[in-house]
Amino acid sequence: MSMSSASSPARTNGTKAVSTAHLALFMALGAETVFFLTLLMAYITMRSQVPWPVEHSFSRLAFPLFNTGILGLSVLAVWRAHANIRLGRAARLESWLIVSLLLGLLFIAGQVYEFNRAGLKVSDQTFGAVFFILIGFHALHVLAGIVILTINSFRSHWGDFSAERHVAIEIGTWFWYYVAAVWVVLFAALYII
Q1: pLDDT for 70-89, tens place per residue?
Q2: What is the three-class DSSP state of 2?
Q3: Nearest-angstrom CA–CA distance, 120 and 126
Q4: Which residues contact 120 (CB under 8 A, 6 or more apart)?
Q5: Taking the C-alpha atoms of 149, 154, 160 and 166 in order, what is their torsion angle to the nearest 10 degrees?
Q6: Which of 80, 76, 54, 64 is nearest to 139 (CA)?
Q7: Mean pLDDT (whole number) for 161-189
Q8: Residue 118, φ and ψ in degrees, nearest 5
Q9: Beta-carbon contacts of residue 50 (< 8 Å; ≥ 6 apart)
């Protein structure tokens, strides 16, 4: 069963059943949450034992904060895309998906810039390794979201979605929300606390 055909799960007792695609997403995000929480616990344990070698000043936070705003705008764009297809506005779906995709690419470019100016290197023993693993794996998830947005943009252009059939848009939207939520936690842990 394709994602698009899974958009209308059978009704049981007047409630909508969870589609296989939704269930798979929930399971994958659950596993990813455990992964990120494990890395964060390693970071927190390390931080509690040794001072973090990077200062937390506004000048140091300005660019990551700007980049966080870019990701936030992309979340608003993907939300608009989802809202528009639910209302049957396929042309607006494609436009908002492209906006979100471009903002996601801008966020990744910002991450590459941040990697180069972080003041840490992967070889900086544990600090550099933890920083780059957390940021790097998040960037991989953003790239996965960009792939999903790209596929959904093409499918939208080809007319694959409607108000009744858009599970792939929901899955992509929820994944993008997850990526943004993980970033908020990482931003707080790495740059503020």
Answers
A1: 999 999 999 999 999 999 88
A2: coil
A3: 10
A4: 53, 54, 127, 128, 131, 132
A5: 10
A6: 64
A7: 92
A8: -65, -25
A9: 127
Structure tokens given for 112: 């590459």
CA dist., res. 102 & res. 110, Å (int): 12
Name the phi and psi angles at 16, rounded to 5. Answer: -85, 125
Give the tokens for residue 60. 């140091």
Measured CA to CA, the distance from residue 147 to residue 17 in angstroms comes to: 27
Q: Which domains does the chain have, with CATH numbers?
A: 15-192 (1.20.120.80)
Q: In the predicted model, is pLDDT for residue 123 greater than 70? A: no
CB 131 within 8 A of CB 39: no
- Specify whether the CB–CB gap between 190 and 135 falls below 8 A: yes
Q: Measured between alpha carbons, how far is 130 from 80 in angstroms, rounded to an integer? A: 35
Whether the pLDDT of residue 1 is over 60: the answer is no
Q: How many residues does the chain have?
A: 193
